[in-house]
Specification:
10 strands; 2 domains; binds D-glutamic acid; four-stranded parallel β-sheet; Rossmann fold; six-stranded parallel β-sheet; single chain
Length: 285
């Protein structure tokens, strides 16, 4: 992407930044965007009616992601952050080819960071089944290897998403499952682990205690830094009230409680947008 020309002047563009995810997980990405870009307005769409994307086919993830992006474009966003690893792995190229604004995914920023963090060259990647089988992380790490020999050890961890949504962030059952998933990565001597799913940062403290010598990479934090750089923003110490318009395709009473955990701050009730509405907006584009 010709970053400089595409992103020029976006800092002074008062339009909001659009962010979408398959559901609630992308709020862990939004958390870092809000922290780094407190002066910006955000429109967040969580496709909570159709979550999870992680076990779906590439074709379906592309369709859903295009519908989410179209919805955000109708809110006149200046940039779209795909705050979902699965959508970034399977739909980023499609979105970049069809959207009129710059699109930032979560995979390339985290892959790049992992290559600068690893010392022994053994990088672990964990994510949903769809993200891991897309091989996107391994390809992106290879692309940023700069001629070094890097070894990527990937592991799908499908049980982590429901465990996080259940709030079992450090229960004995979660630890047992984590130990099982991490065993092959530990055997391969990883010194860096990419948390390649929006839900996994909430398991960070538990994972750190199981892997005290391994550097954990939070994809949301990395993507937020890319958005910050792309906008040419400067760090501000001024306190702003976050300006977030929150939309979901399904709303349950548990949402607000979980949203608070992912975002790390209280949040207003979301506005529900029907899937028919999303699909119609896409076909009208
Ligand atoms: N947001 C998804 C991701 O980061 C996890 C949840 C899902 O499978 O949709 O891959």
């Amino acid at each position: 992407m010709e970053r400089d020309s595409i992103f020029a002047d976006m800092l002074f563009d008062s339009r909001p930044i659009g962010v979408f995810d398959s559901g609630i997980g992308g709020l862990s990405v939004l958390k870092h965007l809000v922290r780094l870009l407190p002066q910006e307005r955000f429109v967040y769409l969580g496709d909570t009616a159709r979550v999870p994307y992680g076990n779906r086919s590439a074709e379906t993830v592309r369709l859903y992601s295009s519908q989410c992006a179209s919805f955000l474009l109708t809110h006149d966003v200046k940039m779209i952050v795909v705050a979902c690893n699965t959508a970034s792995a399977l739909a980023l190229d499609t979105l970049r080819a069809t959207c009129s604004v710059p699109v930032i995914g979560v995979i390339e920023p985290a892959a790049r960071r992992s290559t600068s963090e690893t010392v022994n060259g053994h990088i672990g990647v964990i994510g949903t089944r769809a993200t891991i089988s897309s091989d996107s992380y391994a390809q992106s790490i290879e692309a940023h290897s700069d001629g070094r020999s890097l070894f990527v050890h990937s592991q799908p961890c499908p049980l982590f998403v429901p465990l996080v949504e259940e709030g079992w962030l450090d229960s004995p059952a979660t630890r047992l499952i984590a130990e099982e998933y991490l065993r092959p990565l530990i055997a391969n001597g990883i010194d860096t682990l990419v948390l390649g799913c929006t839900h996994y940062p909430l398991l960070g403290p538990m994972l750190s205690s199981l892997l005290p010598l391994v550097k954990l990479i939070d994809c949301g934090e990395c993507a937020a830094h890319d958005a910050f750089d792309a906008l040419g923003a400067v760090h501000q110490d001024v306190l702003h009230t976050p300006q977030i318009s929150l939309y979901v395709t399904d709303h349950t009473p548990a949402f607000t409680l979980m949203a608070r955990q992912f975002l790390g701050m209280p949040i207003d009730e979301p506005v529900r947008v029907s899937i028919d509405n999303l699909a119609r907006r896409t076909s009208e584009r």
